[in-house]
Inverse folding.
């Protein structure tokens, strides 16, 4: 699933400004009462191709609708994201505020407003404090730096406890191509809800349609293969911008290495979101193999990853294979109860649907570690999927119950 | 949805032995280490019609497979249920044990083994202690009483904290007909998982096919309209037995009052399961109205009811309408974001997808009560659904994390 091993690539420092031809900033404009950074700007030096995938939530926030429209032509030169206010459930006024954000950003940068991607994350149902937002955009536009990616990444955080960035480079016919990204998210959370947002940049040139299809493929293996609490926010967005500054041109036929790099950056960002999951004490990788199809493998893996019972058992450090087997059973995947095998780490606990004599010390070591691997073999075919989840602790309840609107 | 108000019926004492012509017992045979009751028997004085709905989990336990077979002819005279061991993930040996349970019960009662419904709930992956089980069945068969329903209901409990029974009677053309039931379940829980089980009896005569279709209809409004943690166990079963002892014959055309009584008993039992939800401190009734279809209403209502974020907000006594709106948005129901209204009790918080000025004191009183009503009006059509859920507390995590296999 993760093809990074098949292609030579190396991890490099930074995030969205690691590739050539990008500048970014993160400033505080007072949307957050804490005074933390809350306005993030990313700009390509030149017009660029871009593609994005948005939340499927029917209550999608105003900036989601606007950014879909702005990306319809496959072009974008800047991304403006505020944190602290999601501009969701804000009606027509909210949509006008999103348009205003694009206009102010465009004016400050000398870019057509239609080439601006707008995103917001934070509290919902509250009108945007547009005076602060406008001042923040102008301030950010004056503070753009070629190494500003870290500040931009910090400015999109809400309840995240650490900055999430990843970048790689690889050789493309003698040209060094870079892919970098930033993300935020730790569940769909306080104030009212949070959001999974990610911005990926590259200095390769990629045509919009190909860029979109490669992004969809990468998201399937990364952001759509993680879960913290199973809730889908109104503001989720992943956008990729390709400005071609490296001189490398990725086209159908030579795209495999770039796909691998894009996959790698998205997967690492997705894994960072799970590691920052609300109240998480464990990071759990779930492989389902031997499924009748890849789709079935994903369904079974996500059923395990989303089960509150499985997640609380991991928090309790109990190798509760019964809950895993039950989750596989109620997923819509094809399952033969008399064939299912379950492994914790390398140790097989269940064979052909029945518990076997296993080494309790070895399983105990697996379950007590911070990083845990679980494998389920359905022994029906060659379908496989890998997903990541975290455990479910008292602190998840604390974080989500104690916030007051 | 609940038609009980349209038909005259009265609540009566007891459960499965409230209708005429049934005897039951509950004994302790040592399957549970606690020494609590763990063998439940219900017997009709005469052969009876019966119908059941079983778990859709593909890892369904051995007794589920056997009982499906035994009920294929629409006939059953007795139900034997042990608690403490689920006889799940036990392979061919487990299936033979389930057959043995039917045989021993049949022999003790002088009934054909094929007319016995068998069910098990408790720990999974452990072979049944058949010596104890056989002794328990024989003991139970010797202690059958016409008022034994309460003992039978107690003997099916696992982590339940109280016995769950309900019964009603109504006039059917001058004949008093009774419907009674017992249930167990408080989530899918420790030891390895628990189960939702319910047995309903009536002294009306109902042909098997009609009985099945009426049961399916009742379950849709009751057991399939509740959620504690969204997990579906390997052992779930709801069975209804109709022995005709009252002399009343329910047929297509005169079935409405019986359907209402069956609905009422199933709904009350389902609500008791939610009230006993693991760690629950709140009982929440969710109405979705104005949906494009009844199916859409159910999808939106269950998305709200299953959301960890919604459930933790109720535990925190916070009127977090944003999480409710988001859950509606990611359900697969048709939604127009600019039309959604949300009420807590009688107080409207959201109108046309936007928060409105609401009376905080009134909403505070709603959210601080133990029983809470939430209504969502999608304003698209006449589809409606009512579901019940509980909140999500520290104790849910505690109960599910602290058990060790």
């Amino acid at each position: 699933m993760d093809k990074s091993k098949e292609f030579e690539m190396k991890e490099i420092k930074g995030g969205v400004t690691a590739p050539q031809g990008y500048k970014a900033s993160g400033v505080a404009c007072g949307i957050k009462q804490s005074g933390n950074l809350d306005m993030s700007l990313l700009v390509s030096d030149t017009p660029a191709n871009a593609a994005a995938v948005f939340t499927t939530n029917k209550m999608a926030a105003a900036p989601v609708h606007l950014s879909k429209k702005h990306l319809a032509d496959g072009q974008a030169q800047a991304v403006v994201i505020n944190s602290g206010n999601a501009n969701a459930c804000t009606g027509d006024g909210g949509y006008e505020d999103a348009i205003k954000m694009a206009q102010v950003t465009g004016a400050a940068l000398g870019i057509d407003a239609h080439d601006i991607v707008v995103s917001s994350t934070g509290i919902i149902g509250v009108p945007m404090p547009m005076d602060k937002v406008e001042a923040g955009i102008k301030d950010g536009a004056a503070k753009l730096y070629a190494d500003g990616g870290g500040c931009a990444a910090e400015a999109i955080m809400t309840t995240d406890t650490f900055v999430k960035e990843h970048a790689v480079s690889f050789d493309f016919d003698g040209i060094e191509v870079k892919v970098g990204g930033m993300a935020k998210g730790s569940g769909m959370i306080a104030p009212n809800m949070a959001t999974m947002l990610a911005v990926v940049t590259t200095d390769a040139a990629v045509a919009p349609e190909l860029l979109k299809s490669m992004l969809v493929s990468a998201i399937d293996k990364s952001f759509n293969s993680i879960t913290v609490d199973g809730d889908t926010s109104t503001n989720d967005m992943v956008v990729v911008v390709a400005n071609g500054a490296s001189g490398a041109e990725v086209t159908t036929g030579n795209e495999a290495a770039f796909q691998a790099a894009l996959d790698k950056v998205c997967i690492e960002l997705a894994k960072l979101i799970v590691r920052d999951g609300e109240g998480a004490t464990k990071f759990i990788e779930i492989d389902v193999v031997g499924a009748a199809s890849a789709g079935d493998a994903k369904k079974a893996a996500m059923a395990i990853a989303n089960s509150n019972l499985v997640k609380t058992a991991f928090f309790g450090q109990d190798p509760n294979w019964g809950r895993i087997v039950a989750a596989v059973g109620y997923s819509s995947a094809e399952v033969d109860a008399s064939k299912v095998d379950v492994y914790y780490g390398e140790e097989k606990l269940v064979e052909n649907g029945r518990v076997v004599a296993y080494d309790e010390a070895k399983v105990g070591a697996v379950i007590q570690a911070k990083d845990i691997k679980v494998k389920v073999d359905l022994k029906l075919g060659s379908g496989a999927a890998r997903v990541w989840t975290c455990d479910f602790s008292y602190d998840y309840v604390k974080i989500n119950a104690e916030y007051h609107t």
Notes: Chain A touches chain B through 61 residues (CB under 8 Å). Residues 188-193 of chain A have pLDDT under 50 and may be disordered. The longest strand of chain A covers residues 39-54.
